[in-house]
Fold these 2 entries.
Entry 1:
Amino acid sequence: MSELDFNRIEEEGDGSGVRMKVIGVGGAGTNMVDRLMLSNPDDIYLSVVNTDQQALSNSPVLDKRCIGKKVTGGLGAGGEREVGIEAAESDRALLESMVEDVDLLFITAGLGGGTGTGVAPVIADIATKAGVVVISFVTMPFTIERAGRANVAKVGLEKLRDVCSAVIPLPNDLLIQESAADASLLDAFAQADAWIEKAIKSIWTMMVKTGMVNLDFSQLRQAFAKKAGKTLFGLGEGKGEDAVDDAIESLKLCPLLHTPEFSKKAEHLLVNIVGGVGLGMASVQRIMDSVTDEFGKDANVVMGAVVDEGLGDTVEICVIGTSDVSGVSMFQPAAAKRATAPAKKLFEEEPVKPEQKKKARKTHDKKVKVEQHEFSFNEGDPKGEFENSEGTIFEGQDLDTPTFLRKGVKIAL
Amino acid sequence: MYKTKVIAGVEIGTGKVTVLLGEIVEGRSLNVIGLGQSSSGGVVKGRIVDFHEASDCVHAAILAAENQAGVKIDGVYLAMSGAHIDGFLSEASVNITGPERRVTREEMDQVVSMAQNREMEDSRTVIHHLRRPFRLDGRSVSSPVTMQGEKLESSYWTIHGDAATVSDAIHVVNGFNLHVDDIILSSLATASAVATDEEKKNGCMVVDIGRGTTDYALFQDSHCLFAGSLPLGGDHISNDLSIGLRMRLKQAESLKIRYGSAIIEHRDKSEKVWQNNDFEIGDRQIPVWSIERIIELRTQEIFEVVRKKLGALYNPDRLAGGIIISGGSSRLRNIDKCAEGVLGIRARIGDNSLIATGELKDAQYSTALGLLQYGLQYQSEKELAESRSGGLFGKLKELFQKD
C-alpha cells in the first residue's frame, strides 16, 4: 500500500481561519467518513485511521493512515481494545502530526471493538493536549450483541469523555427505532451517519458562513472549555409554512435527546439555526426561547443563526450542550496559551472593534480559570433517577435501559 | 397485668413513606389506631441516598400517625427492601446418636446453629434466616423432636443486606428517638398481609411491585423458601414510556395511569390518544399500541427476572396458590394477565381483606399492615417465651413454622 502524500493541511480558502478536520477511527468510523465524503467532499478535511490495512484500502478517503503495523501487522486489532491502544501508542508521532494545525476536530468511531475503542481516546487525548477542540461521535453496540462488547464500549466512552470537549454517543438500539419497519441494518447505520453529517455540517456552517447572528470559534471554544461529561445533542428540522414550529417540535422529539446516554439539561448550550431566506429575527428569537427553556439550566447560551439561500423554506436547528462535570478546565495552562492563538488570529483577520476584542479576550482568560461547580444531572430531569444511580445489571444487561430498546422492538410514534 | 403496647409499621418506599400504628392489647389482638403517609424523598430504588431528606419524610409520616392516634410509639417494625438484599442457602446435618435414634432437642438446636453459623463479610448483616422444613432421613418433617431417624438435615435461606444501608434506615427511625424492634424484608411483610394460609400451604408467590423495587417471596408447604428484592419497579415503566414516546416523566406517568395496560389490547396501531388531553398547543397524539407495547415488554421482563432469580425453586406444579401481585403497580390494568402469560400460573391482585376492613384493605397498606402482624406475633411470642424459658430459634424463625 502506498503511504500517500496525504497529510498536508493546506491553508483553507473559506476565510474563517478555523481549520476543521474529521478523523474516522476503525471500521465503523471509516464508514461514517466515507459517507461524509460522498456528500461533502471539499469543505472539511477528512482522514481515516485504522489498524486494518485491508479495510483502509476500501475507503475512498484520500488521507488514510494505517497505524500499529508493528503491533498488528496491519491486520486489525481483532476486537481487542488493548491492542488498539498499543497500536495507537506505537504510532503516536503520526497521530500527533495528524492533529497539528487543526482547531476543531471531529472524531467518528464505533465503540465496542478494538480500533475505535482503543485508538479514538488516544487521538482525542493528543489533540486536546495540543489545544484542539475535540467533538466525538461514537456509535454504541446493540444490547443484543454479546455483553462483553457493550462493556468495552462503556469503558471506551468513559475514556473519551475524559479527553474530549463533547462526546455524542449514538446507541445502535436507537437506530432501530428510527429506521423504517422494513429497513435493513445498513439503512439504520446510514441513519447514524446522516445524524453525524448533519451535526458536522451544522457546526461547519456556523463557523464559516456569516450569519444574522454570528458565532465564532472563540465562542465555540468557550462553550467547550470544560470536560465533556454527558453531552446534550439534538437536531430538529422543519419545512413549509410552519417551518419554525415544526423544527422546534421535531427537535423536542429528537430521539437522541431521549436516551439514557444523554443529559437533558446543560450549562453551556450551543444553538445553531440555519434557515432559508424566510428566517427572520422573530423566528430566531422564538426558537431560542423555547430551546433555552427546554434544555438550558441557568444556561450560558451561545447562539448562531445563518441564512442559507439554498435551503428554501427549511429551518434546521442543532443543539449541543455540555455541563461542567468536574470543574476542571479541558486545557492545561501550558496548552491554553497555544489554544488561544488560532482564535486571536481570527480576530486579527476580521475587522473587529477594539472593545469587542477586549471582551473576547476577557472570556478567554475566564476559561483558563478553574471553576468549581457543584453538578448534578437530575435536577428536573425525567430520567434523572436512573441516569445517576448505579445500573441494575442482570445477565449482562443494564435493566435501567428501557426494555424495548434492549430488545430492539420498534415503537411507533 | 398486661400493658398495651403501641407499635408502628414503617415502610420507607421509593414513592412514599407509610406508617401504621397498631395497639397490641393483652399481647394477642391488634387494633390499627393511626395512619401517616408522606411522599418520599431521598430514596432511590428502595435505598436511602439522602439521609436528611429521607429523615424529614419519615418523621413527617410518623408524626402524622402519632397525632392521629394521640399516643406515643413504643417500638418500630421497619420494612427493608432494595438491591442490596441478597441471600444464600446454608445447610447442615447431624447424625442422631441416641440409643433409640430419637431426635433430641439438643440435636435439633445443634443442627440449626450449625446451619446458621456461616461466616459473612463484615459489610453484610443478616436480616432473616428463613428455615426450610427439616429433613429426617430425607423425609420432610416440620418438628423432628422425638421422631426416629439416623440423620437430621436443616437448611436455611439466609437473607442479608448491606450493613451500612440497613443501619442508615434504622438511624432514620432512631433519629426520632424511637427504637427499632425489628427489621423485616418487605416481601415477607406484604405476604403476611395478602396471602392466605392456604395459598402458602399450596405454594404461592407474592410479588410486590412498588415504584423503585420489586419484592418477591416464594412459599411452599407454608414455609417461605426464598425471598428477595429487585431494583425494578413502576418508575422503570414510566421511564421507558418517557424515553420511547419522548415526553417528560410526569406526562409518561399520567399516560401510564390513564391508558396503561400490561398486555396489548389495541392491535390497531392507528388508534391514538392525546398525550396531555388539555387542548393546549403542543399536545400530540400517541398510538395506544405503543404505550401498551412498552409497558408489556417491561412488565413481562420484571416477571421474567423474578422467575430467573427463583431458579429451580420455580416450579408451576408446586405453585397451586398462584401469584399474588401487590404494590402500587398492581393497579396497572391486566398486570395479572401479564403475569399469567409469563409464569404460567394463576394470578390475582392482592389486597388486605384477610386482616383488615375498609380503607386499610387497599394494597398500599399491605406492607405496613404486614409489619404490624409481625409485631403482634413477636409480642405474643415474647410473652410465651418468657413463660417458657427461652424460645427455641428466636423470633423470626418461628414465624414461618405455622402449620
Entry 2:
Amino acid sequence: MAEPPAPTIEQAGASGSDELLATKLYLPQPPPGFVARPRLVEALHQGLTRGLVLVCAPAGFGKTSLLADWARQRQRPVAWLSLDQGDNDPARFWRHVIAALDRMRPGLAEQVSSLLGPPPPPAFEGLVTALINELAAQPAEDQLLLILDDYHLIETPAVHASIGFLLEHLPHGLHLVLASRADPPLGLARLRTRGQLTELRAAELRFTVEEAAALLRGAVGADLPDTAMATLAARTEGWVAGLQLAALSLRERSDAAGFVATFSGSHRYVLDFLTEEVLERQPEPLVRFLLETSVLERLSGELCDAVTGRGDGQAMLEQVERANLFLTPLDEVRGWWRYDQLFADLLRARMQRERPARVPELHRNAAAWSEAHGLADDAVRHALAAGDAAWAARLIEHQADGLLVRSEGATLRRWLEAMPAALVRSRPRLCLAQARLAILSRRVEGVDGLLDAAERAWEGAAGTVEEPYEPSVGRAASLLANIPATIALERAILAELRGDAEQTILFASRAQALLAEGEWMLAFLARTHLAVAEWLSGRLLEAERAFASSVAQWRATGEPFPAAWSSYQLAEVQRAQGRLDAALGTYQHALVMTAAPGRPTLPAAGVALVGMAEVAYQRGELEVALGHLTEGVARCRQLAYTQPLATGLAVLAWIRQDRGDHAGALAAIGEAERVAPTPGVASLLNSVPAQRARLLLAQGDLAAATHWARERGLGADDQPGYPREPGYLVLVRVLLAHNRPDQALRLLERLHGLAAAQRRTGSLIEIQALQALALASGGDEAGAMAVLAETLVLACPEGYVRVFADEGPPMATLLGRLVAAQRARQTAASGVPLGYLGRLVRAFESATAASGSRAGPGRAVMAGLVDPLSERELEVLHLLATGKPNQQIADELVVAVNTVKKHVAHILDKLGAANRTEATARARELGLLD
Amino acid sequence: MSQPPAHDPPAEPPAHYEILVDGVLDSRWSSWFEDLQVISDEARQTVITGPVVDQAALHGLLAKIRDLNLPLLSVRRIRPGDPSHEVGA
C-alpha cells in the first residue's frame, strides 16, 4: 500500500525557473556578421522528407546559428528548445518540450500536462503517446519543426528512450531536429541504413574558402587579399569559431598581413592564440568583466552586477555585444544573454589560470542572487561550485518538497548525489528527502538506515538553535518541516508495507502526537496510514470511517489522485465487508472525480476502473470486467504506484483462465508480479503472488503451488492473522489438492473464527466455500451441502459468482448435487433463489465450454437443474415463450408437428415444469431467454 | 544498514591517465584540466597526464577536451611514474 504523494497545492518554486523558460524557448537571432550558407539550408530542407535531422559537430561549428537561420527563413511553425543540464530530469525535459510545442499548437499543454503527474509516470511513453495523439488529432497544413539544441547535454537513458519512442512514432507533420556535439544514442546506425537520417557533421559544417572569405570580408572589409583569406581558412580549418576570432583580431589591426603571417606561423591551439589576441586589444575593465561573468550560464545586467560587485552590468553587456564578443541575446528585450559556450570555456580557463581564488567568490555572489530571485537550480549549482556544500544543502532542503510535487525526483536525486555523503548524513532533512525518494521508487531496503541517521542527526542537534526553515511549499504542506513527525511517519509506512498493523499504529500515532498546529499534509498522511493499520487489524468499521474521511478531505483540497487512491482503499474495505454494491459506488465516485467530462481523463481513473473490473469479475460479468480493464490497465500503466496495475493484470489473468487461455493467464499474472511492489509486502496489501500460486493450482500445477506455500513459510497449523489471509487460503487449496481435508478444515476453522469476529463477510464467503469443498472431500456430503447452501444465501444478495466458479470441477459437482436437492424440494437448499443458482451454473458452463471439455463434470452438473437444452430445443423454447402454438413452431422451423411436440416434452422435463407457462417462467429465471 | 550516498572518498589511490590530443596547449592550461600536467611536443601534440579520481572525472576531462574541439588521439591508463609519451614514438 504505497504512499500518496504531496499534492500540487501550489506550483511553488517553479516560478523562478519558469521565468527563464522563455529564454530556453527563444529562437536565437543570427549573430552579427552571420554568413548565410544556402548549401546547408538546402540539405536541411531536403532532410525533412526523411526522418530525423541531426546536426552533429563539436563546439564552435555554428550549429545553433545555422538552425536558427533556417528556422527563421522557413516562416513555418518552429518549436525551439535550448536544452541544459537540468533537462536530464525527464519530467522537466518533457515539460519544456511540451511548452515549446504549445507555443505553436496552443492548448496542447493543457491536454497532456496532467500526465506529468504528480504522481510521476514510471516511464514516459504514456505521456509521449498522448502527445503524439494530440498532435496527430489536430493536423495543420504547416509542418511543425521541433528543434532541440545542445542535445549532447542529455545523459539520462530515460530521456533518450522517450525521444527514441517519439522518433519511432512521429506523427505526420512533426519533424524532429537535433543539434549535438556528440552522436546521441538513438540507434543512428539503423536510421542510416533505413535512410531515415539526415546528418550535417563537421565535414559539412566547415566553412569553405568562399564562405570564410564572405565572413572575413563582412567583418574587416573588402581589402583583405585572397591569399590572406585562404591562409586563415586553412589555419582554422574552416572552424567558424576560429574564423570569428580571427575576424575580431583583424578588425583591430592595421597590419593584416602581419597578423596572418604570425597566426599561420604559430602552432598554438587556434583558440588559445586568437583569444589572447582579441582580449589583449580590449580595454582592461571589459576583459575583467568578461572573465568574471564567465562563471554564469545566463547573464543579465543585474546578475552581472551582483557577481562583479559593480553597477555597470547592463552597460557592459551592451558594450560586449557591440564588440561582437560572442554574447547572444536570449530574448527580444535584451534582458538575458549568454556567451557562446566555447568562448565562455576559454574565458573560464583563463580565469582559472589567472585568478583562481576569485572564482568561488564569484559563484557565491551568483548563488546569492539566484536564491533571492527564486532560481533554485542555478543557486544550488553555484553554491556547489563555490564549495559551499552547507549552503547548497539548505537550498536543497528548501526546494525538496516542491520538486517532489512537480515530479522532479530525478533532479532532487541528482542534487543529493552531488553532495558529500557525510554532510547528507549530518542533516536530518536531507536524510528524510533521500528516504522519501527511496520509498517512492520502492527501494525500501536502505530506508531504515536513513531514518536512523536522520534521528541521530536530529538528536545530536538537540539544544542548538534550529535554523529557520521555510520550504518553498510552505511549512503546512511540507514533509520536511517537522522532522520527528516525519521520521515517525516514514517508519509507519515501512511497518505497513510489512503488514505489521501494530507497529504502523504505533508510529503513525506517534507522528500525530508530534504534529504542530496547521501541519495538514502530515496530518492527512498519518490518518491515512492509521486507516490502513485499522484495516490490517481487521477493524473494518473504523477503517471504513477513516478512509471515507480521507476521501472527503482530499476531495476538499481538489487533489484527484490522492482522493482516487483513498477511494480505492475505502472500496477494498467495503469488499472485505462483503458489500460489493457499496464498493462499486465508491469506485464510480472515484471515476467521476478523475474523468470529468470536457477535461482530459487522469491516469488515476485507472484505479477506479480496475476496482470496477474487480467487482464485475466477482459477479461473473466477465465482458463488462474486460471492458473496464482494457482502459483501466492502460491508464494504470501511467502511474508510479503499481499496485492497481498489478491487481488489474491479475483479474485479466483470471478472465483468460476462464476462457481456457492458460498461457495468456500466466503471461498476465507474470507481468503483474513483475510490476507489483516488493515481495516483503503482506499478502493482503499485495495479493498477486498468492493469486499466481492459486492460478497455477487451477491449471493443475500442484507442485508449484505447494512449493510457493512452503517458500512463504505457510504452515497448516499456523494461527494466521488477517494480513496474511490470502496466502493461507491458497494453502487450504493446496491441502485439499493433496487430499488432506482434515488439515484444511482445521485451518479453515481458525480463519473462520477470525473473519467472523471481524465481520468480514467477503472472507467468510470464500472460507465457507472452501469448507464445503473440504467437507465433501472428507466424505461428509450432507455437511458440505449444508455449508454450501448457507454460503450461497450469504453470497446471493451481493451477487458473488466467481468465488464459487473459480474453484473448478469439485465445486461444480457439489453445486450440481445441491441443485438436484433443490429440485427435489429438499429443505436444505430451499433458501437459495433459482435465478442465482442458474447464474452460478452458467458460470461453470462457460468455463467448460471454453476449455472444450467433453461431457466433463460440468455437464453432469446440469442434470439436476437443466439437462442442457440442445440447440434445437432452445429454438423451440424461444418460440414457445412468445406464445406460439406447436403448429406455428413446426412451420417456422420446417419440421413435423410431432417433432415439435417431442421437443416441448423434453423441455418441460428438463426444466422441471408442468406446462409451457411454468417452463417459460423457469427459463426466464435461469436467463435462458433474453 | 543504509547504503551510503555516492561520493564517499574511494579507498584506493586514484588511477593515472595519459590523454593525448592533437594541437598545442601550453602548460598554463593545467588549471583548466584539474591541475593535470599539460605538456606539448614538437609533433604538435599535447599530453595531459596525472591522477584522475574516478571514471566520472575521466569522462569530465574528455568532455572538456571535446568541447574545445581538440582531436582526441589516445587515452591510456598508466602506472604513476611511467615515462611520458615520447615524441614520435
